[in-house]
Design goal:
Length: 140
């Protein structure tokens, strides 16, 4: 597998509990390099645009409220097979189903407040990175 970049968010439940460093330590221990990072506070409309793919789902409004409730940390992670590796380190969406040692198993509060987002495919990674970062902000 080639070196890839993926997009990651440390979500409001995690920034609220000062877990940015602990989560970043997990990424770095897994060989994922943080090549861009910024802390921002999304508006509800911005959160809605980011998660537009879920707009028909019953949890969409709650998800947009949550993602705009406090600051997030937007990141680009780089490494061998980074998209799949990041999903592995994150664990299952529902923390009750997440494997031991994963971020969501250790830190997530619920299926909604689940501490991290990670891109699910190369195409979505490219779109999500471009939504949050300019080329000048990706510093290897
Ligand atoms: P993400 O896209 O955030 O990386 P994911 O790919 O594991 O997570 P998705 O199915 O894409 O999961 O759902 C996006 C997000 O919507 C979840 O991470 C979670 O915050 C929220 N979500 C998903 N399912 C539910 C649910 N049943 N109830 C409440 N919130 C949910
Ligand atoms: Mg998803």
């Amino acid at each position: 597998m080639a070196v890839q970049r993926t997009f990651s968010i440390i979500k409001p439940d995690a920034t609220n509990r000062n877990l940015t460093g602990a989560i970043n330590a997990k990424f770095e221990a897994a060989g994922l390099r943080i090549v861009a990072q910024k802390r921002i506070h999304l508006t509800k409309a911005q959160a809605g645009e980011f998660y537009a793919v879920h707009k028909e789902r019953p949890f969409y409004d709650e998800l947009c409220e949550f993602m705009s409730s406090a600051p997030i940390v937007a990141q680009v992670l780089e490494g061998e097979d980074a998209i799949a590796k990041n999903r592995e380190v994150m664990g299952a969406t529902n923390p009750a189903e997440a494997a031991d040692g994963t971020i969501r198993k250790e830190f997530a509060l619920s299926i909604g407040e689940n501490s991290v987002h990670g891109s699910d495919a190369a195409e979505t990674a490219a779109v999500e990175i471009a939504y949050f970062f300019s080329g000048l902000e990706l510093v290897g």
